[in-house]
Amino acid sequence: MRDLHIWKRLIVYGLLLAVGTLALQWLDYRRLALGHSDDIYVFLIAAGFLTLGVYIGARALGGVERRPFDGNPQAQAALGISDRELEVLREVAAGRSNKEIARRLDVSPNTVKTHLARLFEKLDAKRRTDALRKARELGLVP
Questions:
Q1: What is the dihedral sign for C-alpha 125, 85, 98, 91?
Q2: Are 41 and 56 in contact (CB under 8 A)?
Q3: Which of 7, 72, 109, 132 could pair with 139 in a Cys bridge, judged by C-beta atoms 3.0 to 4.6 Å apart?
Q4: What's the whole-model pTM score?
Q5: 3-state class (DSSP) for residue 93
């Protein structure tokens, strides 16, 4: 019986503290709202325009039909890039190391180096980043 009385008292004190805290928060909110009402209105108007802009942009650009990536076979043929070299180039574009590429394509790391050297020569590149930039410009990799 004594435990029940203690629990009731704790619940009453807890409710009183919650109501007091709520009152203080409400007063703080009113002070904030009165002191910064212009800022709040500007924020609401900006949020409305942002939402409207995103909606109109999505509607305007959403209807653009993208054609599937084909790898630009004309550029591949013109440069003389083999299918295997193109596979290596795609793996490089995915950010894989020579060892990872060798494992994925089931070849030796030296074979990967040879393919990369030929790709650098055909794309007139000195390093991987140059080769990727030129391959993207030509549409060989996405």
A1: positive
A2: no
A3: 72
A4: 0.53
A5: helix
